[in-house]
Design brief:
Layout: H1 11-29, E1 40-44, E2 47-48, E3 53-59, E4 66-70, E5 74-80, E6 87-93, E7 101-109, E8 116-123, H2 141-168
Parallel strand pairs: 2-8
Antiparallel strand pairs: 1-3, 3-6, 4-5, 4-7, 5-6, 7-8
């Protein structure tokens, strides 16, 4: 008995296969996209007092190194933050005698002559906070009193538990 020829696919399925084939052909013919888009950079914090440190980050360079220059801190080199070098990180200390105001921060992928990203860093008046990092200066007297009361209560509870255990032995 002769074999039956296969039935033609329904019209909707035929259209779907045509669209899928056209999409594959278009994707194969399109040029490969660049692996790295235009670089983007950050400076954190964006406002800092003389003597303070800033974190520098640039992503999308496609290189293993980047150079950052500014009149606020001179030159810094950035290195990979991960194995794929998707982002380059580093830090810099603002000069103690940096003039207050806006300073340009120029990121150069791969060093001098590479792709550039320019940001602004605001140097504020005053000195950088040291020691406790300014954590005490922003607390109100009520917050200090509440923290002290909680600490005293925790110490008192600890002494009570220890005395109770000693008495039970």
């Amino acid at each position: 008995m002769p074999a039956k020829p296969p039935a033609a696919p329904p019209t909707a399925a035929r259209r779907l296969m045509t669209v899928a084939a056209a999409t594959l052909i278009a994707a194969a013919a399109a040029p490969a996209t660049v692996a790295y888009a235009f670089p983007s950079a950050t400076v954190s914090p964006t406002a800092v007092a003389p003597g303070g440190r800033v974190a520098l980050n640039v992503a999308g360079c496609g290189t293993q190194v980047a150079r950052v220059t500014s009149t606020a801190f001179g030159e810094a080199r950035l290195t990979p933050g991960n194995q794929a070098a998707a982002s380059l990180i580093g830090s810099a200390t603002v000069y103690d005698n940096a003039t207050p105001g806006a300073h340009r921060v120029v990121f150069e992928c791969g060093g001098p002559g590479g792709e550039r990203v320019t940001l602004s860093l605001q140097v504020t008046t005053g000195a950088a906070r040291g020691g406790t990092g300014g954590s005490i200066g922003s607390m109100s007297p009520g917050q200090i009193a509440l923290g002290s009361a909680l600490t005293a209560g925790a110490l008192g509870a600890g002494v009570w538990v220890m005395r109770r255990r000693a008495a039970a032995s």
